[in-house]
Amino acid sequence: MDAQPVIAAIRFAQGRRPADPIPADPMAWLDSQLAPGLPGPDLPADLPATLPAIFAAGREDTERVRAGGMGRPNQARIVQTETAAAIALSVGGAQGFRERLVAFWANHLAIQRGRVPLFAGHYVREVIRAHVTGKFEDMLVAMARHPAMLAYLDNNGSIGPNSPAGQRMRRGLNENLAREILELHTVTPAAGYTQEDVTSFARILTGWSFQGQREPYGFVFRANAHEPGPKRLMGRTFPPGQEGGVMALTWLARHEKTHRHLATKLVRHFVADDPPPAAVDRIYGVLRDTGGDLGAATRALVRLPEAWQPPLGKLRNPQDYVIAVLRAVEAPDDIAPRAANFMQNLGQGWWSPPAPIGFPDSGAAWSGPEIMVRRLDWANNISGRGAGRDAAEVAEAVLGPICRPETLRAAARAGSAREALTLVLVSPEFHRR
């Protein structure tokens, strides 16, 4: 097997399954996964998957608890089913590159599933997946309007001090969402914004909230909680009302510092922990020239010469590693619920970063001795699913020419087929992407 299909599947996608066809043109194969409208995870027909249904399920749980019942069964079912469906798509699907992009952008605009359990799956489907190859400004505005982010960063309770509601209730601003959008999601401190800008942006976003008791379910703009008058942000003046918030978010999404930040993160994720400056410059230029077109930036990303140069250098994070192993042993989709537990045990729970900055994206964060020992133990256990498989054949199918001779020799000397397969799955080259 040629190296390019392997690099395409490992560096850009989620690893090969032995039965996967080998693409004749790896770049065209990657491009094909960037078309709009590709299917997402299959959800059961009875799962509350729309916002009205999700809010209704949450109300049922709340009423049950108030009546003395134990637990929140609807919440538990929604969380478990959404998570399992998304993982199953990664383990068994053929759109690994697109799933990697969904994971990347979900980590960039991160929420914590434990804080907003009812909404996490809907957020990833409607905010991230729906815009993953569109304009960044559309993704950013959708994020700022979604109940998951509004609740996670407390903007639903942010009230303009001089608004009618603020005067009546004596409540004020919450700056969490404004601060994280500036610091993490868009321009970063490199833009030179000040604390005054954070406060002003928080005023711009007052009134951005949601409701779940009646229509319209989801985002609402509460004019009586919005700080009146125009506001200045980083030298620009924005009008009052919801329009000013959309204008501010759009301007931030198109800012050159945002494009530089996004380019750096994309190259770091798909190419190297230490992003090559020339590669960052190229992706930055595409984002700048296209007004933040993520599809165009992604197509440019797969055409970076640096992205195709062996050896593979980045350490797979726990989620990537678990998915790649399960694909290598051709695990069935129904392993997804247990896979979520595996990832949690390895330090990277699904949709569960510890902070708004998301999970780290460098090998140093995932190469500690304890985490690596857990990986080895888990891989040894999961190899039982592939017991009887010829380790050399698996290595050829999923690693091809990047498999080292030392790995094949060690597998050949192993005491059992399971041990041989484990040696392939824990080899240095399998840990890399």
Automatic annotation (TrEMBL):
InterPro entries: DUF1800 (IPR014917). It comes from the Bacteria. This is DUF1800 domain-containing protein. It comes from Neoroseomonas terrae.
